[in-house]
Each structure stands twice: as structure tokens, then as C-alpha cells.
Amino acid sequence: LKSDLQRSVAFSGLVRSAWIVNVVIVLIASGVHQIDSRLYPGTYKALETFLHFTPIQLGALSLAQNLAGNIIGPIWGFISALFSQKWLLFASIGSWSLTTFLVALSFNFESMLLFRMLNGISLS
Question: Would you state the pLDDT for residue 111?
């Protein structure tokens, strides 16, 4: 009986520490996303100058990212009930990193629009 109790206590401690690690990872990813969201409007002038985007195109980029994320959010919720949330979190962070890098490499409006939409999907 004592060994079963010790195993139970050890397992609950392990579950609690894994939960804390997951929460910390989500909070870090959320913080980086908020930094990205807050800094993006500050780059509008540079995007207008160097890539010759109009204010309407810049607004469309923001709208596309947010709309894609909001549409796919419930689907991610459904998928998270079917698969391991840990691996979905890793896949989401990995795809978010990749799409952020691809946004930085974008040279025209269409490619940036596509990568911003994929970025929104990864973030949701």
C-alpha cells in the first residue's frame, strides 16, 4: 500500500510539472505573438517605402492573418481533442517560426499575404 501511495504521489508531481512546462511554453509563445502584433503596425512606413505597398494592402495583410487565425481556431480545438496536445503545440510553434521567417523573406504582396495567412493559422 505504501509503495502504491508513493507511486501515486510521484506521478501526480510529474503530471503537475509537465502541465507547468506546457503553460510556460504557451505563455512565451503568446508573449512573442503579442510583440509581433504590436510591432507590425510600426513597420508600415518601411513596407510602404521599400516594397511599395499601399495602406489598403497593409490593412489587407493584417486582416488576412487575423481572419485566417479566427476561422481555423475552432478547427484546431477539435484537432487538439483528437491528437496529443504536446505535439500539436510543437507543430504549431514550428510552423509559426517557419512562416514568420518566410514573411521576412517575402518580396511581393501576394507571397506576403499567403505567408501572413499561414502565420495566422499557425498562431491560432
Answer: 95
